[in-house]
């Protein structure tokens, strides 16, 4: 591609007043014309923030990307974009995933950008950045933030999230005290980087690598490893080449790439959140991906990654065991190998020479952690549009279970009352939380791993059947049926359940059933009144109007729909 064909040429290279002004203002930025004119302009979208420990290293890491871009003859410009911190942002960063997707899309379109490097990794950042970039369809490389180092405490290795839930339950059961908890506070998360279990962050960055939008092996490099700097620099070099070749993101994000991402997520025993995000991302790529695709593929893919919360190890172990290339090398028969990636003409070449160095971390095919992928899609009169369960992270005896419902109308009521002995909750009850879906939550917070009541914890109960229209953290575990669609807030059947109703879960049969006669349900439906709107104005009101249900990916309807957006006139 010659310089006149660059998109940015319209801003810098024409004879008009506008180009004169853009060149003058770039001199104002301190650049000589020969430093940038005619070079591919690379936007580095950085989700760094002081409040986001998963991305706090990205402020420096952007310098490595810039180094790579300069080396390859490009002109890097960093754009700070919204940070989505899983830990700090309330009610949930899921409320803001589509906002970052919009910001990504609009920044890339409205500025003189020829190619993009996207930096992020904490849960929703990866899908948000890729949804926006897929819509604009410039050459794009994703730089995953990288997992934090493993936690340590009194000789135990700790996984962020997963062990937080575990030890919090131990404290509630009276097994450990304040002193231990204070030590755990320092031990759980000991370096910058995203959660180092196979939680949502690691699942989505692995999916990005499987899609082919990262450098090979990028997704498992620990955030503070020098290799992460080198990967960032390599990504900077690579994006300049991609612009010169005009290799747009749509050439990478094909139906085959999305199938392979689903295969990867399932074979890793990854987070249930990936179901929603991959469906939304695929939608932005014009690719139809459904819940049924996940269930179909799950039946063909064994879980080979022995990583918490489903298994034993952490992301650093996975990295040294061969990382994603090693993992993918074990399932090549299940992948589409003749599709391009940002780094290689084909995925086949990308995986050439990939090896596994530890058979306990990345299991061989004849010794899987589970014979089928970790996520099952359920249907039934409680979830006509589907629900999901990560059955490998549940106690097996609960996977076929009938029990009476205990219904909580919202999260606060549940928190306030779940330990009330008068509710008479036994280990056989089915805990039901509603009002926690995309509109009701709002934002579908990660409330889906409802707490086990204190008195049952003390009896040693560690898992129960729990069902909700919420999501669950990728680091959580248990027999939790999630993403029930349609949600109760819009009048889905979950809204009709009453305490005492029998509910039957049968994962093998892929069903979730409310054992109440249809005539009685019809009577309850006629009595049901929609709850009042949650927001009177602002982003929340826009969100409530536009958000779609979990089974279609929770994109905004006006963003997901087809239609042209003109490129701005810059001359
Ligand atoms: Fe950011 Fe877990 S809190 S990835
Ligand atoms: Mg999470």
TrEMBL record:
<keyword id="KW-0100">Branched-chain amino acid biosynthesis</keyword>
<dbReference type="InterPro" id="IPR000581">
    <property type="entry name" value="ILV_EDD_N"/>
</dbReference>
<dbReference type="GO" id="GO:0004160">
    <property type="term" value="F:dihydroxy-acid dehydratase activity"/>
</dbReference>
<dbReference type="Pfam" id="PF00920">
    <property type="entry name" value="ILVD_EDD_N"/>
</dbReference>
<keyword id="KW-0028">Amino-acid biosynthesis</keyword>
<keyword id="KW-0408">Iron</keyword>
<dbReference type="InterPro" id="IPR042096">
    <property type="entry name" value="Dihydro-acid_dehy_C"/>
</dbReference>
<protein>
    <submittedName>
        <fullName>L-arabinonate dehydratase</fullName>
        <ecNumber>4.2.1.9</ecNumber>
    </submittedName>
</protein>
<dbReference type="Pfam" id="PF24877">
    <property type="entry name" value="ILV_EDD_C"/>
</dbReference>
<comment type="similarity">
    <text>Belongs to the IlvD/Edd family.</text>
</comment>
<keyword id="KW-0456">Lyase</keyword>
<feature type="domain" description="Dihydroxy-acid/6-phosphogluconate dehydratase N-terminal">
    <location>
        <begin position="39"/>
        <end position="349"/>
    </location>
</feature>
<dbReference type="InterPro" id="IPR037237">
    <property type="entry name" value="IlvD/EDD_N"/>
</dbReference>
<keyword id="KW-0411">Iron-sulfur</keyword>
<dbReference type="InterPro" id="IPR020558">
    <property type="entry name" value="DiOHA_6PGluconate_deHydtase_CS"/>
</dbReference>
<keyword id="KW-0001">2Fe-2S</keyword>
<dbReference type="InterPro" id="IPR056740">
    <property type="entry name" value="ILV_EDD_C"/>
</dbReference>
<feature type="domain" description="Dihydroxy-acid/6-phosphogluconate dehydratase C-terminal">
    <location>
        <begin position="360"/>
        <end position="554"/>
    </location>
</feature>
<dbReference type="InterPro" id="IPR052352">
    <property type="entry name" value="Sugar_Degrad_Dehydratases"/>
</dbReference>
<keyword id="KW-0479">Metal-binding</keyword>
